[in-house]
Specification:
Helices cover about 45% and strands about 30% of the residues. It is an alpha+beta fold. The radius of gyration is 17 Å and the shape is flat. The N terminus is likely disordered.
Length: about 120
């Protein structure tokens, strides 16, 4: 039986941090392709594409990251409430630097890796 598996990989937090630093992600394509082939996938195709995320405000960005990014949740899990609030405020302030002056909207340009393979 041949099963076609499609995998979309995007580390949202990592991509946004790279976006904030004005850097593209390193080229992981050869390593990812090799890892998938070694795991038994064939016909591996990887496409890198630009993706933009738009948020109504820096606070909306922070809420989204907190609710969806497991690494952030894990990092904050054992912190006292006061420390969690400090960290989330720091994330908001970092995002605020990318807010449009007239609307306060935050737009972050990112890169995604879309991967398709057959197993």
């Amino acid at each position: 039986m041949v099963m076609k598996v499609e995998i979309a990989i995007m580390s949202f937090v990592g991509c946004c941090i790279h976006s904030m630093m004005k850097k593209r992600l390193p080229n992981y394509t050869p390593n990812v392709r090799n890892s998938l082939i070694e795991s038994g996938f064939k016909d591996v195709t990887i496409e890198r594409m630009d993706v933009s995320f738009n948020f109504d405000s820096a606070e909306a960005y922070t809420s989204f990251v907190y609710e969806t990014a497991a690494p952030i949740q894990a990092m904050l899990a054992n912190q006292p409430q006061e420390r969690r609030e400090e960290i989330l405020k720091a994330i908001t302030e970092a995002a605020r630097k990318y807010a449009e002056n007239d609307t306060r909207n935050v737009r972050l340009s990112n890169e995604a890796m879309c991967i398709v393979g057959t197993r």
